[in-house]
Amino acid sequence: VGAIMKIALCDDEKKYLDEIETGVKAILEEQNISAEFDLFSDSKEIYSCNNFYDMVFLDIEMEPYSGIDVAKKLKTVNPYIIIFIITSHDSYLDDAMDLNVFRYIKKPLDKKRLKSGIQKALESIDNNVISFFLKNGKASINILSDDIIFVETVGRNTRVVTVKGEYTS
């Protein structure tokens, strides 16, 4: 994983949100992987954002949107997103499997399973995501390679045309 990973965590209990963040950061640091984290304690916030995430950690029982609802929405932005469900409820296991979640980890958080899951996820991350630095140099975006229509050189710039728009670097 070359670029900075974008990771979201959503749990309506601050205690678990902090515990998951601390655990994931420690595991990624061991692997020398840089990541940006967005933390959400309200499922409405993460559901309404259209951010691209490489990996997400979701509680299931939240209001107004469940972790399953949030996972479905995030998959519309990045179909290759790695989803971890962290919950104390087994009753949603089938729904989670229907979404091809990467891991279903029970609370209280099993740090050994979390570490093993993240390591497996890092091995499986699809290299179909390209980080592209925009011309102004102040931002980068992630582009799914399947979304690219064509790439061309225009003078000293690179122009990437995708199904979602055009980008110049």
In words, what does this structure look like?
The protein has helices at residues 14-30, 43-48, 67-77, 93-98, 111-124; strands at 5-10, 35-40, 55-58, 82-87, 103-106, 129-133, 140-144, 148-154, 157-162, 165-168. With 169 residues, it is α/β, with parallel strands linked by helices. It is built from 5 helices and 10 strands. The longest helix is centred in the N-terminal third of the chain and has 17 residues, at 14-30. α1 (14-30) packs across α5 (111-124). The protein has a 5-stranded parallel beta sheet, sandwiched between helices. It is elongated.
What labels would you give this structure?
single chain, 169 residues, alpha/beta, five-stranded parallel β-sheet, three-stranded antiparallel β-sheet, 5 helices, 10 strands, 32% helix, 31% strand, elongated
Strand order of the largest sheet: 2-1-3-4-5
Q: Tell me the strand percentage band.
A: 25-35%
The helix tally amounts to: 5
Helix proportion: 25-40%
Distance between the termini: 21 Å
